[in-house]
Amino acid sequence: MNRRALLSSAPALILAASPASAFLRKKKPTIGNEYYELEEHFKPQMVEVPQSWQVGSIRVISDYFMLYHVRARGQAWRVGVSLGEDGMKFRGRATITRKALKPRWSPTPNMLRRRPDLYGPYRNGLPGGHPKNPMGSAALYMSVNGRPTYYRIHGTNIPWSIGLAYETGCIKLRNDHMEMLYPHVAVGTRMLVT
Question: Residue 62, Cβ neighbours under 10 Å: how many?
Fold first, then answer.
């Protein structure tokens, strides 16, 4: 192969050698779900799951950024999520102990300590439905051993964060996907995050 042929084929060789290039994030930092096209594998779909997964339960597989809500034996509704950065994400068992549409939000004490520049202006909280309220359209509140946590499953006004470890430790869905999940989850639902 001559030098000209080698140089002209180099871009094709680089692309062929990196199959992950087909799955690069398409970050579009905009507010509003209508402006962001989510990758196909993060869109809601019914999938087969182990028969042993309890009907009605929620499983979050952190390594894949996926939430599963088991709808029937061996069948679950799966959707992509955003999780917290390392050191700020929940792992373990929890129970959904409260539900809220258009929830009010206040930064946690840890958020205020860690990023006073970002969260300080909101120390008194934001009402539900406010465009800067990061809780989105709905929230499911998590407790461990009967004690409330600061962790939630909730909507997000940053839809391009789905599939990423982004900022705080909650489990975040696109608002339209949270609205699809919300009516199917009852208070008392058990969940496991691995």
Answer: 17
